[in-house]
Amino acid sequence: MLIKRLLVCVSLILSMSCQSQQTSLSTQKVDISNSNSSVSFERPKLVVGIVVDQMRYDYLTRFFDHYGEGGFKRMMNEGFDCRNNHFNYVPTYTGPGHASVFTGSTPKYHGVISNNWYDKEEKKVVYCAGDSSVTSIGTESWAGQMSPHRMLTTSVADENRLFTQMRGKTIGVAIKDRGAILPAGHTANSAYWFQGKSEGNWISSSHYMDALPDWVNEFNASDAAESYFKTWDTYYDIETYVESGSDKNSFEGGFRGLESAVFPYDLAKLKDFNGGFDILKATAFGNSLTTDFALAAIEGEGLGADEITDFLTLSFSSTDYVGHNFGVNSKEIQDTYIRLDKDLERLFNYLDKNVGNNEYTVFLTADHGAVDVPSYLSSVKIPSGYLNYDERKEKFQKFLLETFGTQDIVENVTNNQVFINREKVLELNLKLADVQQQIADHQITYDHVAKVYTAAAMNSTNYTTGIESLLQNGFNQKRSGDVIIVDDIAYIAYSRTGSTHGSGLNYDTHVPLLFFGKGINQGHTYTKTVIPDIAPTISALLGISFPNGAIGQPLQFVID
């Protein structure tokens, strides 16, 4: 009986203890629940995603003393500056760059493997934004036959549209069609790009609309574009532009109709020799015109006018045109960035007034960098030079005939990739992997070819470091070629004037990444970040799904 009573007492004690623990746990759960109930996503009314075409990171630091307080410096001082930000794939071109920034992915997944590439199914070269199934809006030319249909994944702007049940608007703006279309994504309300030549209008595509909105027609009917047919001179005294090379040199292209590329440029006189309105694209004024149109878009579309987050994707294309023409060390590129800084200040001031200070969020990055003009590098004894593709082609065709008995075994060579004719491989009773390797072994013998890889290697080996990893991140199994060629550092296939890009080297991969505005911390980091981190960071800030092909990670130190 005593043992029985003891067992009953123990049972009661254990029962009371369990009840006490359950009460405690219950209280904890209530506290946690109450704590969680106070968490909310205070989303910005507007996200502005800015891509500056061909902006090297050092343009922030080289020209820093010439910037005002309201543009680049405002983003750097009030926002977050990622100072070691890189592209993590090859090739570094405009189309893949814009797609990667906004999809949080790389060409391996989003499929935009270049600006133009050889389509193995269509058996022709295709353009990243080209779409013959749509019609031009705002022009009679083919320039509006564009859409994002070749981009295989969603953008962060797409995900915001899905999250808001299509109530959040997305507008894309850029002089270049691909700079407007790919960032805005598949579900954008509209994307607009500039049709130069004799027109000077902002146009679109039937992918988005049946006719231009009234506000666009009104903008086109104004003299906004014509007003920039004026003299382009340096914003400040050219003698103060000590951060760039001499104005007169042999490393710049310039404009037709002039003997030398020196300031000032009378655009009204030069336009007839340089494609009419197209000349504006290759001057600092192209960015100002883009800003004018972006401000009209914010007002015309009511972006940021309510509590539902809208997106403006904004790409400044003229920096790329100027860089290609004059080079990264030119007075022209320095003045272009000084003037772009003023345009950014104008944009931010407008947003402060019309959307509300701390009611919008901005990020700014680039789609690629650029190499110093190799002829300039050679003049200061840095290894560099130019590639002779005609010589390579002749040598390669001879090799194909001697090795395979036909040149038809190769369908196309573009973007440093060789596309093999699979039907011909079968007809000759050869193995594709063997043909790839034979071509790779031959290509590596060429002057200024640093590395060569086969598609078989890309598909079978997991590269985690070096140029091999970047090549793999840019390799799309269905769209990329059979052999990938990497040239020597600072050797390019280009004219002896002006700069270009496309490699996996630091001068092409290292680009700015600035965050600014609502929900953004203040500070900077030298921790390495990569382009695919941008879209997940903005997605996390908004509390929405990441783009469906995203491989990047949210930068917690930016938004936490």
Helix content: 25-40%
Can you tell me the residue ranges where pLDDT is under 50 for at least 5 consecutive residues?
1-37
Q: Treating each run of at least 4 consecutive H or I residues as one helix, how many helices?
A: 22
Largest sheet descriptor: 10 strands, mixed
Q: What class, by secondary structure content?
A: alpha/beta
- The overall strand count is 22
Rg, rounded, reads 27 Å
Description:
This protein is of the alpha/beta class. Helices cover 39% and strands 16% of the residues. A ten-stranded mixed beta sheet has the order 6-9-8-7-12-1-13-20-2-21, sandwiched between helices. A hairpin with a 2-residue loop joins strand 15 and strand 16. Helix 11 runs parallel beside helix 13 and helix 12 runs antiparallel to helix 13. The N terminus is likely disordered.
What keyword list fits this structure?
globular; 560 residues; 10-stranded mixed β-sheet; 22 strands; 4-stranded antiparallel β-sheet; alpha/beta
Give the structure's gist in a few sentences.
With 560 residues, the protein is α/β, with parallel strands linked by helices.
SSE diagram, text form:
Elements (H helix, E strand, L loop, with lengths): L1 H36 L8 E7 L5 H5 L9 H7 L1 E3 L2 E2 L7 H10 L3 H4 L5 E4 L4 E4 L8 E2 L18 H8 L6 E5 L2 H8 L5 E6 L5 E5 L8 H8 L9 E2 L32 E2 H4 L7 H4 L3 H17 L8 E7 L1 H9 L4 H26 L3 E7 L7 H6 L5 E2 L2 H16 L5 E5 L2 E4 L1 H6 L4 H12 L5 E6 H6 L5 H8 L9 E5 L3 E2 L13 H4 L3 E5 L5 E3 L3 E2 L3 H9 L13 H4 L1
Parallel strand pairs: 1-12, 1-13, 2-21, 3-22, 7-8, 7-12, 14-19
Antiparallel strand pairs: 2-20, 4-5, 6-9, 8-9, 10-11, 13-20, 15-16, 16-18, 17-18
